Amino acid sequence: MKNTVLTIPQCRERLVEIIQMCSDAATRRRLRALMPHLYRRPQHRRVRCESIAVTPKIVRTVRAFAAAHPRVSQKQMCIKFEINQARVSEILHGPRGVKTRWGRSPR
Fold first, then answer.
1. How far is 29 from 48, CA to CA, in rounded Å?
2. Crossing angle of the two packed helices 85-93 and 56-68, in degrees rounded to 10
3. pLDDT of 64
């Protein structure tokens, strides 16, 4: 066998081949017990999302506030409007290289 790096799916395939070739029932059971460990665990959010959904009304409000208060930081705006700082930046400048759903042109 070559010294190659195997992916997890390739390891599962090899393990199935080894189990099929194995004649000892106890060893087959022990090898089959390893199979569930060769799958990725499902990803779950660990914390609840605390930001509210960004609606067109919030977009208008944030833009108006930013125009009326040019010296207020994005961090302060995100706290005031309870939205993520990245969303404040997107509202004010648009996402990088993508036209926003609110009709704002890209950077």
1. 40
2. 80
3. 96
| Domain definitions of the chain by residue range | 8-38, 56-93
pLDDT for residue 106: 47
Read off the pTM: 0.48
Q: What is the pLDDT of residues 5-25, one digit of tens each?
A: 888 899 999 999 999 999 999
Q: What is the pLDDT of residue 40?
A: 81
Q: Which two tokens stand for residue 32?
A: 């089959």
| Residue 81 near residue 88, CB atoms below 8 Å | yes
The predicted pLDDT at position 39 comes to 86
DSSP result, the chain: ----PPPHHHHHHHHHHHHHH---HHHHHHHHHHGGGGSPPPP--SS---SPPP-HHHHHHHHHHHHH-TTS-HHHHHHHHTS-HHHHHHHHH--TTS--TT-PPP-
Q: What is the spatial distance between Cα 95 and Cα 105, in angstroms, rounded to a whole number?
A: 9
